[in-house]
Design goal:
alpha+beta; seven-stranded mixed beta sheet; 2 domains; BirA Bifunctional Protein, domain 2; binds adenosine-5'-triphosphate; Rossmann fold; five-stranded mixed beta sheet; 417 residues
């Protein structure tokens, strides 16, 4: 079975990811996150947010709405696709004006082209309660637009000075022509974006800085950073001097974009508002990544089979569950009571995502935790009742140490740093 198929089956079976609206036969390109998936996704988003806003100075966050004024998408250039029939490559997803292409083969990668169509990947929606008066607008096709819309609000309501960043994690919607590959290409997905506003003369410096900083960040989360690479775009938007993607095994995870003053310039023109700041329209370096894609690639990176064990070797900070607590035997009330105390303490006092398991034998419980990536299992046994020590079993090495139960807080806090 190919690794993605194994991940699809594991994530459904263990409650990470379910096909959207499955009881009605599903909706292509839409997935829901289950109990473990939401924990892992939240961990990931929290790491990103902390890294951006706490580990850097001069970065503030927003949470913009999914529905925007319809003019936003005219200014962004997303609705002009209506004018020219386009053909899309089924392999690399590049689009070409049908008039510019002869033949059926993509000039960029040799893939098969779709028939020419009037493409508009924006997902339309309508606002209003009276049928005849409904206003057509779109669910946002890229999260970054709400950052541009709020640029003036942010500079007017905070004390930022150039250069500075605005970040956002949020949903985006695209009527992708060809969706699929599990959660790689979705019609509803989440993006994490930084828009870094700077003076034009500093663009090259900041572009290189963010390009490397983002790669370093991803490298710190993956077990196999050698699978990460930069892909340089040959064809550039007319306003860009460089364009790179960060890829995992050759598939795009994040784009590092040189957006110059294009976005704020266009919104200034379409809205008639003055979006200058410190005497100019700031230029932008954008880092725009897919949360769902990162999630998928982390699972592929973490998946391992060792003998009978299936293990998700997730970074402990990303793992959905940090600790599982077991009584050695479920039918010994003393063991169960002591283990419940530890379980409750870790969960409610240390606020660690903790699981209780007293089913089957210990070996099976370890395997069940390995498969969901739980880094540590704590077992309460007969020795615990005598000397208050417990065993801690490590997911990756399967080795065990014994520690006083009173030292668990310090142990886990240090390991999670
Ligand atoms: P692709 O070429 O794969 O369609 P893109 O270049 O259109 O991606 P951007 O518009 O730059 O992507 O969006 C930034 C990031 O958002 C991408 O690097 C990717 O991680 C994520 N993303 C874009 N489209 C999708 C999608 N349909 N499903 C899941 N994630 C997506």
């Amino acid at each position: 079975m190919d690794p993605t198929e194994k991940i699809v089956s594991l994530t459904k079976r263990r409650g990470f990811i379910y096909p959207g609206s499955e009881i009605y036969g599903g909706v292509g390109g839409i997935y829901d996150y289950g109990p473990l998936g939401v924990l892992m996704k939240n961990n990931l988003k929290q790491l990103w947010w902390q890294w951006m806003t706490l580990d850097h100075e001069d970065i503030v966050g927003i949470d913009g709405a999914i529905i925007t004024h319809p003019k936003v998408w005219a200014a962004s250039g997303h609705v002009k696709g209506f004018v020219d029939p386009l053909t899309e490559c089924k392999k690399c997803h590049h689009r070409f004006k049908a008039d510019d292409i002869d033949g059926q083969i993509c000039p960029d990668c040799g893939g098969e082209l779709t028939a020419p169509k009037n493409f508009n990947t924006l997902v339309p929606t309508e606002l209003g309660v009276i049928e005849e008066e409904k206003v057509k607008t779109y669910l946002r096709g890229e999260a970054c637009q709400t950052i541009y819309l709020n640029f003036k609000n942010v500079v007017d309501s905070t004390r930022v000075k150039l250069p500075f960043g605005i970040v956002q994690i949020g949903k985006a919607f695209r009527n992708e022509v060809t969706f699929g590959n599990f959660i790689f290409r979705l019609r509803e997905f989440e993006q994490w974006d930084l828009q870094w506003f700077t003076r034009p003369e500093d663009m090259a410096k900041w572009y290189d800085y963010w390009k490397q900083a983002r790669m370093d960040w991803y490298s710190s989360l993956f077990n196999h950073p050698e699978n990460l690479s930069f892909h340089q775009h040959e064809k550039l938007a007319f306003y860009a001097q460089k364009a790179f993607d960060i890829q995992y095994q050759g598939r795009e995870m994040e784009g590092i974009h040189w957006r110059s003053d294009w976005d704020l310039g266009r919104h200034s023109q379409f809205s008639g508002q003055d979006l200058t700041f410190e005497g100019l329209i700031p230029h932008i370096v954008e880092t725009s990544g897919g949360v769902d894609r990162c999630f998928l690639f982390l699972l592929l990176d973490a998946y391992a089979e060792e003998g009978e064990r299936v293990i998700l070797k997730l970074h402990p900070r990303i793992a959905p569950v940090k600790v599982a607590v077991f009584p050695l035997l479920a039918n010994k009330p003393d063991l169960v009571a002591k283990a419940r105390d530890i379980y409750r303490h870790l969960k409610t006092q240390l606020h660690l995502s903790t699981i209780w398991d007293d089913r089957g034998n210990i070996g099976k419980r370890y395997y069940a935790q390995d498969e969901i990536g739980t880094p540590w299992c704590v077992t309460v046994d007969f020795q615990t009742l005598e000397d208050h020590t417990v065993t801690i079993r490590d997911r990756d090495s399967a080795s065990q140490i014994r520690l006083p139960a009173a030292e668990l807080d310090t142990y886990f806090t240090n390991r999670l740093k």
